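Subgroup meeting minutes
Present: P.N., E.W., G.H.
Scribe: E.W.

1. P.N. recapped why we're keeping a running log of single-chain structure predictions: easier to compare across weeks, and new members can see raw inputs and outputs side by side.
2. G.H. added today's entry (195 aa).
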Amino acid sequence: MPSRYTVNPVAGIIQPADFCPSPNQDERPAGTEPELLVLHGISLPPGQYGGPYIEQLFTNCLDPNEHEYFAEIHQMHVSAHLLLRRDGTLIQFVPFTRRAWHAGLSSFRGRERCNDYSIGIELEGCDEQPYSDQQYANLAPIISALREVYPALDARSIAGHCDIAPGRKDDPGPAFDWLRLYDVLSQNRVTPGMS
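Output recorded in log:
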């Protein structure tokens, strides 16, 4: 079955997706291609879904007066390449050719600064609640489309934020079903390694 998504390697843009450019991005180190996919979980306010708040956070427009939690985070300059909403809607904030600010202090297999060489995918969700059927169904073809353009994203290059920043981050959390993702990926002819 052909992928529902395609990636333009020059622009670093995936289609179909809504594009909401984030200012929180910069150049990757010279000669660096994506070699790692990092899966995150996010909900704003925590445990609540829908609304414009994730987009507002990633574009530095979050109103600190809208919710008490926002007062703690509104000055953070963060982003991800992609956000996969619970209904399966995909939003892109940063081209894959550029560095998104999603990983923070991080290391993958002894290599630090994961932002330099990774693609960050945020899943709308939280640690304690199952992710949606639409998210699992769409995540696999998104990964397949990325791997067609970035061959360094090999079978063992999918990790959770918890894996690259243990003790500091725990997303996408125990509610994320890695085995379910692996099953869907295998149906899309992508075989990941362990997270």
